[in-house]
Design goal:
Blueprint: H1 2-13, H2 19-40, H3 50-62, H4 67-86, H5 113-122, H6 128-143, H7 147-152, E1 158-159, E2 164-168, E3 174-178, H8 181-195, H9 217-228, H10 239-252, H11 257-264, H12 269-273, H13 280-290
Antiparallel strand pairs: 1-2, 2-3
Helix pairs in contact: 1-2, 2-4, 6-8, 6-10
């Protein structure tokens, strides 16, 4: 497994993958290695063949994994063997011709403006925890940043004079995101309270737990779910829905899609265009209301 360890170091140091992504790759590779050991008594990953991957896909499918999850695991394995080929461990990439199976994309329904306003108005900001929670929600919805980006924010990332903040995105790519006045007010109040909160002096991360430690994915997920499940009957109430809501509401209000793309940190416009699909019902209504022959 030394070669696998070298691959993971390569992802972190040369490809600038986040620690979360590297852990996910490690877990996916470990799962395949266990399959090869159990099913074929094969302990050397450089000796695998494509039929082994096909069998693994069948096993994963029988376990109930979605095609999206299976495709992600296959992608990690393809990257591993591309690395093996690059450093000369193998001559032929065993999975080079494998194509991802088309997976039906889950439709995410954004929160309504009314739902968001209700949550933000109901939060008790008189204590530190409530103010912290409101700040987290306003940051996610006010800027469209990802959960991991929210957790990684530091107090030094905020540029009060310019009304913007520095966000470290995927593959350690930095971008500047504007801060609207309402969010700036909440942030200033929170930062003031944070300075006096026990334990926060040991690190510079913006959001902290009740004990003053850096927040983590499960903490943020629970925070969002707790507040929104009382005002929304949507199946998904994850932090990503707030990012989706930000993009959808911006586009609904007429924002330039290229501007939204830059704020979200998307590499391609195609990723941002996924959010325009939510607008289709509105487009259809407008069409039926305006076209001369729509009512015939």
């Amino acid at each position: 497994m030394d070669n696998v360890a070298a691959f993971l170091r390569y992802l972190a140091s040369e490809k600038n993958y986040s620690a979360h992504t590297v852990r996910a790759y490690s877990k996916d590779i470990e799962g395949f290695a266990m399959h090869c050991s159990d099913a074929y008594s094969l302990h050397n990953l450089s000796k695998v063949h494509y039929p082994m991957l096909r069998d693994y896909i069948i096993v994963l499918s029988k376990r109930g994994l979605t095609m999206r999850s299976i495709n992600r695991k296959c992608s990690a394995l393809k990257s591993l063997y591309a690395y093996f080929q690059k450093i000369g461990i193998i001559e032929v990439h065993p999975f080079a011709q494998h194509k991802a199976v088309k997976a039906k994309k889950a439709f995410i329904t954004p929160f309504s403006v009314a739902e968001l306003n209700t949550v933000l108005e109901q939060i008790d900001r008189s204590d530190f925890a409530g103010l912290r929670d409101a700040t987290a929600i306003e940051l996610l919805y006010g800027t469209g940043i990802r959960q991991a980006e929210l957790i990684g924010l530091k107090t030094s990332d905020i540029d009060w004079a310019q009304g913007q903040m520095r966000v470290l995105g995927k593959r350690n790519k930095e971008r500047l995101v504007p801060i609207i006045p309402a969010l700036a007010t909440t942030l200033k109040h929170y930062v003031t309270q944070r300075k006096n909160w026990p334990g926060t002096s040991v690190h510079s991360f913006l959001l902290v737990t009740n004990k003053g430690n850096k927040t983590y994915p499960a903490f943020v997920y629970r925070l969002i779910k707790t507040y929104f499940r009382s005002v929304s009957n949507k199946i998904s109430t994850s932090p990503h829905v707030l990012r989706h809501s930000f993009a959808t509401h911006m586009l609904d209000a007429g924002a330039d899609i290229n501007v939204v793309k830059e704020i979200l940190g998307h590499e391609s416009l195609a990723a941002t265009q996924e959010y325009t699909k939510v607008q289709l019902p509105k487009v259809q209504d407008a069409y039926r209301a305006a076209h001369p022959r729509a009512k015939k």
